Amino acid sequence: MAAQMTATKVPEVRDITRIERIGAHSHIRGLGLDDALEPRQVCQGMVGQLAARRAAGIILEMIKDGHIAGRAVLIAGQPGTGKTAIAMGIAQSLGQDTPFTAIAGSEIFSLEMSKTEALSQAFRKAIGVRIKEETEIIEGEVVEIQIDRPATGTGTKVGKLTLKTTEMETIYDLGSKMIESLSKERVQAGDVITIDKATGKINKLGRSFTRARDYDAMGAQTQFVQCPEGELQKRKEVVHTVSLHEIDVINSRTQGFLALFSGDTGEIKSEVREQINAKVSEWREEGKAEIIPGVLFIDEVHMLDMECFSFLNRALESDLSPVLIMATNRGITRIRGTNYQSPHGIPIDLLDRLIIIATSPYTEKETRQILKIRYEEEDVELSEEALTVLTRIGLETSLRYAIQLISTAGVVCRKRGGTEVQVEDIKRVYSLFLDESRSSQYMKEYQDSFLFNETKATQMDTS
């Protein structure tokens, strides 16, 4: 019986799928502008805010041209008007080559280092250095690999590698390390490879077109390339892009680049940064390196205090300074750490340096379109009636609250066996989860039942 159960046991097979987290702004693909920097009404996940997106498009072009380094932009508007979405749109439009660092103003006070040091590291993360160097490589098609193993089974392996181009063919002697690298990369006859002479790194470019008859045996993912031309040994320019902060960490810690993975970079001495700045300037003059001013985005900038604002004033005047983009939803409020009030909670002298972009509340049509984009992003089906009700909720409460009801209504719909969210599902989650105004009303009605009730005293200062 036991043998029969063993024979009929089926091994468990699990499909490995890529898991992508759906975030608040994961639907943003760019700013949604045409070639003339005119915003489309709905494009790349962006809806409405035409004036703000047009202004952001001009800033984006200046960033790409490198004309705005050391400048600062403030995106100001009411909560839920797309300020962070515009910043994310700029980040997506810049691409991978331009560094983009995003932090929240409150992060500065929660890190185990001084506030100015945290801001310094954020600034230098947003400045890229494109380092150019020439290296010698061997590029060719593998004709044959011969590996001689000792008869005893122990000892050093030796071998020969035959490479060819369209014009020449050469045989190279192989050591044990090179044989190990070839085995690791699974290099075989017919592969087109490059070998870095300085490091010995092997890079497999693909299969030669002369081996196209092997296609069925190799698989559909195999890439075929032409046999290289010219000589086997070539000089190639290699470009590495790193941030100034990464260079700081490597030169300031005993464990070097491993500190980048652990995250425990600690405080970096100013002497180290000065030496690195001097070296980078020297590389620029020699044409070995190029500075890429990136973007530092500080959300909730009103959370910074006078010490941080003074640092920002000074840092923006530096030669090595990124583009600073800040966002706030505050009006005239108190500057943190002082008794003085100022627009957006930012000192007047810093406001004078800023280019200010204003955002405005969404219309009913724009709110409906945003909700439509979000339920498609979250893979939830909504009926037209449910979308109309959700749009009305978004206008009467807040857009963020309405967006959060999408996924919860989707769960309720699945539990009742439905495939499309109906009005009843929206009503169900609306009754279960309170918005800000209903929660405040509940607090007022039952304030005496809660501990530490202070509503009868002076009102809380929300500034």
How would you sum up this structure in a few lines?
The protein has 463 residues and is an alpha/beta fold. The protein has helices at 2-8, 50-65, 83-94, 115-125, 176-184, 215-218, 244-252, 258-262, 270-286, 306-315, 348-351, 364-377, 384-396, 399-415, 423-432, 436-445, and strands at 42-43, 46-47, 72-76, 100-104, 127-148, 158-164, 169-174, 191-196, 202-208, 224-225, 233-243, 289-293, 295-299, 323-328, 332-334, 341-343, 354-358. A hairpin with a 6-residue loop joins strand 15 (332-334) and strand 16.
Structure characterization notes:
With 463 residues, the protein is α/β, with parallel strands linked by helices. Helices cover 36% and strands 22% of the residues. The protein contains 16 helices and 17 strands. The strands form 4 sheets. Strands 5, 6, 7, 8, 9, 10, 11 and 12 form an 8-stranded mixed sheet that branches. β9, α6 and β10 form a beta-alpha-beta unit. α12 packs across α13. The longest helix is centred in the middle third of the chain and has 17 residues. The radius of gyration is 30 Å and the shape is globular. It starts with a helix and ends in an 18-residue tail after the last helix. The N terminus is likely disordered.
SSE diagram, text form:
Elements: H1 2-8, E1 42-43, E2 46-47, H2 50-65, E3 72-76, H3 83-94, E4 100-104, H4 115-125, E5 127-148, E6 158-164, E7 169-174, H5 176-184, E8 191-196, E9 202-208, H6 215-218, E10 224-225, E11 233-243, H7 244-252, H8 258-262, H9 270-286, E12 289-293, E13 295-299, H10 306-315, E14 323-328, E15 332-334, E16 341-343, H11 348-351, E17 354-358, H12 364-377, H13 384-396, H14 399-415, H15 423-432, H16 436-445
Parallel strand pairs: 3-14, 3-17, 4-13, 9-10, 13-14
Antiparallel strand pairs: 1-2, 5-6, 5-8, 5-11, 5-12, 6-7, 8-9, 15-16
